[in-house]
């Protein structure tokens, strides 16, 4: 038999997504079936090849023309069940009974190489029944911001949704000014939120709540499925995951910016990167989001807001806790009381690690607090101060790097004397300690002014080179990368970016 020769132009393989969809099999009130709206002239910005492989996708197929058509929403892959999910949420404290995916469409779920179920979702693919007045689209700026920051969070070891691809659409989206449109393909353990529970609770749909809770348990917390009180255990698990997540944000200087209950993942991942930002100089009151007029989501308020959001989840779960409502409330209250100790232990433990301490001693919290207070008073850069501790391990001759970040360098050097005294109480070889410090205190974070510069290059000149370069630097945040020193630096006065926007 003659072998059939393919002209590669006409013989492209079908892009294969190994879908195994479960949420689309939930009752119809959980979502709306909807297809992406095709776009005029899509162009590939980037495929995250490593992540594609992890998901069992072929990165070359994904980068082909057919792959591009899928990533742009012009074509649905085989066996996709395209849906927009329903959810509600408290936005800046006010309850909205119906939000839902207004500018996102879930294509389906795959089981990744390590056996984990992952959602693949297009963000910006056009209107859905949940779009309200919106256009269902995303602009290139927010797409690049989400891509950069979510991948940076991943590299920092913080639970997060991921970015599988970004494309431009060749169409304009109307915001304050017309902006080039784009779509990001987002990957998450799931897109289920505190707001998803609120959607059913607001409708007194206890059956819906139960189905959702069972789905979340099976998917994210299978170990508790057989426990005596799985719904109590579910609340405990989400509280623990969120308390640890928010602690990890504080330890890298991250401000989410819109911690509405619809932006809180029940899987404990950072989700919905909007006007988020990393702080440069340490300032607990930092707020970057242009829409956060009252500083509700300021850096230092994130733990208390997370706890407030979890109280909303607890309220939703009450009907599942049994017929005795007093007992149900008592359970919920007790569960919520665990938030503070879990958060504090994760945060204080994290700070000790950032100082290179291996054991807990009395006075450690004060030592850390005094450094942080000195950083506030001296407008010292958060990331670099910790990074440069590694140079100061041996003695005062190594203090200059960190001290130069302080308006009054003595404030650092005086603190460093106490710090080294405390280090001396632990017998750890200096080389080991240096390695540990450099592995916990990043050199590279997605600094606002760098992210903005990337966006400007893309919007003004269609130049995605700076985007690629910044991603490279951020992919290995704990390694000093020769040639990329400038990505470590805080902004110069004229480069400072004080406001960030969601771009909705
Ligand atoms: P977010 O700011 O991404 O957390 O979105 C809050 C809510 O507004 C969600 O229900 C979104 O789906 C919806 N939304 C945001 N931007 C748009 C848009 N451009 N078109 C339609 N819905 C949107
Ligand atoms: Mg959202």
Helix and strand arrangement:
Layout: E1 31-33, E2 43-47, H1 49-54, H2 59-63, H3 65-71, E3 83-85, E4 89-91, E5 94-96, E6 104-111, E7 117-123, E8 138-139, H4 140-155, E9 162-174, E10 178-188, H5 194-202, H6 206-220, H7 230-252, E11 254-255, E12 277-278, H8 302-317, H9 325-337, H10 339-354, H11 364-378, H12 382-387, H13 400-403, H14 409-424, H15 430-440, H16 448-461, H17 465-475
Antiparallel strand pairs: 1-3, 2-9, 4-5, 6-7, 7-10, 8-10, 9-10, 11-12
The protein binds adenosine monophosphate and magnesium ion (MG).
Adenosine monophosphate is lined by residues 99-103, 130-131, 134-137, 258, 262-263, 272, 274, 502, 504.
The first-to-last residue Cα distance is: 57 Å
Distinct small molecules bound, one entry per kind: adenosine monophosphate, magnesium ion
**Count of runs of 4 or more consecutive helical residues:** 17
* Overall strand count: 12
What is the averaged pLDDT score? 96
Cα radius of gyration in angstroms: 24 Å
Helical fraction: 40-55%
Strand content: 5-15%
| Structural class by SSE content | alpha+beta
Principal-axes geometry comes out as: globular
* Low-pLDDT stretches: 1-6
The ordered H/E elements are EEHHHEEEEEEHEEHHHEEHHHHHHHHHH
């Amino acid at each position: 038999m003659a072998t059939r020769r393919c002209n590669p132009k006409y013989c492209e393989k079908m892009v294969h997504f190994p879908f195994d969809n479960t949420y689309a099999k939930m009752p119809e009130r959980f979502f709306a079936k909807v297809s992406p709206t095709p776009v005029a002239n899509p162009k590939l910005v980037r495929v995250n090849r490593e992540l594609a492989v992890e998901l069992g996708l072929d990165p070359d197929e994904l980068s082909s023309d057919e792959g591009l058509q899928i990533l742009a929403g012009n074509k649905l892959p085989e066996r996709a069940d395209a849906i927009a999910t329903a959810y509600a949420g408290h936005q800046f404290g006010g309850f909205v009974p119906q939000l839902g995916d207004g500018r996102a469409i879930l294509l389906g779920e795959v089981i990744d190489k390590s056996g984990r179920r992952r959602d693949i979702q297009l963000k910006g693919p056009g209107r859905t029944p949940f779009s309200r007045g919106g256009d269902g689209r995303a602009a290139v700026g927010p797409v690049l911001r989400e891509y950069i920051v979510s991948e940076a969070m991943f590299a920092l070891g913080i639970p997060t949704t991921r970015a599988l691809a970004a494309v431009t659409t060749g169409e304009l989206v109307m915001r304050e000014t017309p902006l080039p449109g784009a779509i990001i393909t987002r990957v998450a353990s799931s897109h289920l939120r505190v707001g998803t529970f609120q959607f059913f609770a607001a409708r007194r749909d206890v059956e819906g709540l139960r189905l959702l809770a069972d789905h979340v348990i099976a998917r994210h917390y299978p170990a508790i499925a057989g426990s005596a009180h799985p719904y109590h255990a579910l609340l405990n698990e989400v509280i623990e995951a969120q308390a640890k997540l928010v602690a990890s944000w504080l330890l890298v200087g991250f401000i989410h910016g819109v911690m509405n209950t619809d932006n809180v993942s029940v899987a404990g991942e950072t989700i919905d990167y909007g006007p988020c930002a990393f702080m440069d100089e340490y300032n607990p009151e930092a707020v970057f989001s242009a829409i956060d007029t009252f500083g509700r989501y300021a850096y230092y308020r994130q733990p208390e807001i997370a706890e407030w959001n979890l109280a909303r989840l607890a309220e939703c779960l009450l009907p599942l806790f049994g017929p005795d409502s007093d007992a149900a409330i008592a359970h919920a209250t007790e569960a919520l009381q665990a938030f503070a100790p879990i958060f504090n232990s994760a945060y204080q433990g994290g700070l000790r690690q950032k100082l290179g301490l291996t054991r807990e001693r009395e006075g450690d919290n004060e030592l850390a607090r005094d450094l942080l207070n000195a950083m506030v008073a001296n407008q010292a850069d958060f990331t670099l101060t910790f990074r440069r501790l590694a140079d100061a391990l041996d003695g005062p001759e190594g203090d200059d790097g960190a001290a130069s970040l302080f308006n009054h360098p003595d404030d650092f050097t005086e603190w460093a004397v106490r710090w080294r005294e405390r280090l001396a109480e632990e017998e750890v070889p200096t080389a080991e300690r240096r390695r540990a410090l450099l592995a916990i205190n990043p050199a590279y974070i997605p600094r606002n002014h760098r992210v903005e510069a990337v966006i400007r290059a893309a919007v003004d000149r269609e130049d995605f080179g700076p985007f690629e370069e910044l991603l490279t630097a951020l992919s290995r945040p704990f390694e000093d990368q020769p040639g990329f020193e400038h990505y470590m630096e805080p902004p110069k006065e004229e480069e400072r970016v004080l406001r960030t926007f969601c771009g909705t």
